[in-house]
């Protein structure tokens, strides 16, 4: 079986069945999905009824079961990102969610409402930018992994051979994956960021590509998913690969990021920065070892760069991380703590060179992957930098962009694009492309995890910290605060439903969506707003008797401030919490 999926498809709809027709040259296959029995079969074009309603589609994302029954999710719009070694890479930009059922009359009012909420969750995930695919190329693997494969692997379908960590529609494709004969209709989709640029330095043209692959294991939003799970999967784990293609030669440099691999939490509670809590009873070493055992198997040596603060609320996490590395005593793992905020305070971002100088020799040892135009492997990457801060977003992306530039400098010199002594930073046109691409990568990763664009992107884009950048960081921080406290429960539920961490059971007697909120938690914010408003009204309508007015103002001021502190004290009860999957409670 060729490692491709069908590129051109038509969806034919009748009241009883969905017919997905392969329209590639020479193709005669038709995937038939029975809307009543949900059976999936493979047939030929002559079986498509002429009465069917027809529309073009660009891929099957998969199927999902909700209260009303099964739904088919298809890609309806796509955008070309570029070509990758003669393989076209696409971004999916619009989707359609189609019900198998022709009517909802079989549902109660509560079931109808639940089904509407579940549909909103699925559509929410689909509106988060960053779904990519190729019908002819395996985007889930790095160049180095693909270079070290067997002939049997090469013959597998894209779905079979894909790295399941990065197949975001793996759960949605479970029915198709069980039937190998229909795998050419099963399209693995990546979530993250991809950008491609044709560049020129010294009159020599090369392709420069940046790919970030978000793991679907322990996926979620900023404050509800931290640390690791029992399998050693880290929250917000992203594999980022930088690729150069010049005159048939290909070079790649891979880095990873992921939450501090301990059992810890940081649940939202209306405070700007909730206190991180480390689990006092969990076997941290077991989960920690599982995490790094898998990382060493996949990537080789691990150079950990921990960028968290070494004082305040982040200090215990840095100390625990260092202690775990020491306890593990694995020669394949090295640990470097660099207090990003302390070292770069007062906008002294030039001091990042301290870290780069510290790891320069290690980076040379890790090397990079390089294969020449004849297909011979010239060098392998022997390990990766595993960077983290608290969110593995802003500070992490800055450091990754600097490490990637240093590797790119060496690659372009080796390939003969840069002359001896030339610096990449001096190539103004390319530097603009490079910096903007890494800033876009930061924004994509941040929006997918924290709900807003990244912070500190002014440095990534311009190479210096600016006052405007600080103002934009303040605005993004404010938006993050709101989303993390008042909408992330829904976002987390949406991801859990999409990835199959929660399965809908329409026969369930008690829906998790119907848990009523305590009335006091609905009433207190209203009371606070009313009291504050009355305080302002009393000031605006002050009459001749200031003593009486002052008494009213004080009464309403005390009422509003008192209510505010009651809400703040019970902050965790006022935030939008997930309802579908019980998240770890770490006390």
Automatic annotation (TrEMBL):
Pfam families: Syja_N (PF02383)
Transmembrane segments: 57-75, 521-543, 549-569
UniProt keywords, alphabetically: Membrane, Transmembrane, Transmembrane helix
InterPro entries in UniProt: SAC_dom (IPR002013)
Catalytically driven reaction(s): a 1,2-diacyl-sn-glycero-3-phospho-(1D-myo-inositol 4-phosphate) + H2O = a 1,2-diacyl-sn-glycero-3-phospho-(1D-myo-inositol) + phosphate; a 1,2-diacyl-sn-glycero-3-phospho-(1D-myo-inositol-3-phosphate) + H2O = a 1,2-diacyl-sn-glycero-3-phospho-(1D-myo-inositol) + phosphate
Enzyme Commission (EC) number: 3.1.3.64
Domain SAC: 122-451
Domain of life according to the entry: Eukaryota
EC primary class: hydrolase
Protein name per Swiss-Prot or TrEMBL: Phosphatidylinositol-3-phosphatase SAC1
Organism (species): Vicugna pacos (Alpaca)
